[in-house]
Amino acid sequence: MDTPVDLYATREALPVIRFADASEETVARQLDQAFSQIGFCYFADIGVDEALVEGVFAASRRFHALPRAAKDAIAMNSFHRGYMAPKTSLIETSTVAQVTRPNDSESFMLMHEVPPDDPRYGRPLDGPNLWPELPTAEFRQPVEAYEQAMEAFCRRRLLPAMALALGLPRDWFAPHFRQPTTFLRLLHYPPQARDAPEDAFGSAPHTDYGFITILCQDQRGGLEVRRRDGTWLSAPPLPGTWVVNVADMLSRWTNGRWQSTPHRVKNLSGGDRYSCPYFFDMSMDSIVEVVPSCHGPGNPARFPPVRYGDYLIERLDRNYAYRKQATS
Description:
This protein has helices at about 25-35, 50-65, 70, 140-165, 250-255, 310-320, 320-325, and strands at about 15-20, 40-45, 80-85, 105-110, 180-190, 205, 210-215, 225, 230-235, 240-245, 265, 275-280, 285-290, 305. It has a single domain, classed as Jelly Rolls (Sandwich).
């Protein structure tokens, strides 16, 4: 199947990239189009079983239905894992809005597991996950199964296609992802009143910090993507798809060729909204320097090299209340 991606021609819809039966080269071309023009798209047919998706959403609903005290018992630890209570994240690093209100959402955060016998253990963001007192089969098992499926897709299907899209060898990114920094966030957005203040958000306008974000959302809607002219495009739920976006480090790696696009959430559906974003990022020690294919004569590198872990920690320290309390 070698058909062009339906790319944003009407300005009213994000493109859909289908992986089933598509050659790696076709997917690469479509990724480059989507990431260059808007920085967002949908993925379909990525090989992650629908039962895994249903399982992680069921686990999220079980967790968020727990009494507040049970969730607070696993409050975010210094490794950025655990429960994040409502209105404890204020996006100070937004480049498109002066954010004055904290996000109206709560979440459970899972990251890459770093056991005590791992040499990385104890470094910033390299430590243990926290788990609620729920039966393993009802929570930990489906959450870990979904996380593992997403990592496998990123490693096997996505990274090679992204490298080809940039004119690089298909294994170019692999050394940067031997020990990837991963996040799986189980988000719950309570309904917002339709007469809520204009600057009240479930998630205020922001860009993501790392490499790529792959979001599975329920049917409530509310996600919006900022166009280049400053207007907002709805990214409604489409059955069997994930919403995907370029994050800051990937945009930096490509010298801005691929856009890290601001996005926001307002849950005006009248009901509770659940989403499960998966963040697949490079190793904390990776040095992000503009790739050779994205700079040259007449197109100088616009960004100096940066260690991903340093960039990430600076963003977390500014945006999350629990980290400010720990350092005050």
